[in-house]
What does this fold into?
Amino acid sequence: MSKLPVSYKHLGRIEYQAAWDYQESLLQQNLDIKKQNRDNELAQNGMAPTLTHNSFLLCEHEPVFTLGKSGAMENLLVNNEYLKQKGISFFKTNRGGDITFHGIGQIVGYPILDLERLKPDIVLYMRNLEEVIIRTIAEYGIESERSEGETGVWIDVKTPHKARKICALGVRTSRWITMHGFALNVNTDLEYFNLIIPCGIQNKQVTSMAKELGKEVNIQEVEAKIKTHFEDVFGVSLK
It folds into this structure.
């Protein structure tokens, strides 16, 4: 059986709002396709359904804090004036999760997938995203795992005072179409995380591949490995 084709696009270093708008446009295109298919089915006109389009976007963002729908503003520890002085943007978003940071040296992945063409299971989708990252950083000798009751990819979960998150997840779905995604800290400046309570979780640390390895990591190489594992885990073919 042929693998589901997924269009891959590297957005480079892009402002958060521009990437969000682009995701929303891809999501809306697919919602329009699904609505047309439903209308045609109801009209019993015998037309073959139009297939939705699947995409996988990778990028880096300029420094920005984003707050999920269930997030609390108290988890942002500085005021707007400070953010302006430091050139940090802030957005309330429609993804799940609490507050996180995106910035230079971090790989952000946005899959726009129709889960009805894969498997309509949001929990499995989240676990698969984590699996992509777990396999990717394992190639660098970094052992990571999931933390029960918490999304993302973690290191030393079984040792509470050492537990640290290396990749955050936050997604949105509409009629089984996904958007938003993951943020893997590669060479990220972790000082930014001191300005928030990351993901709203008290007393847990944040780390990066560079911190774990004690050296800067080639980000293009990591992106290539993410693409390979994304294809393998989801059983798709990037075009």
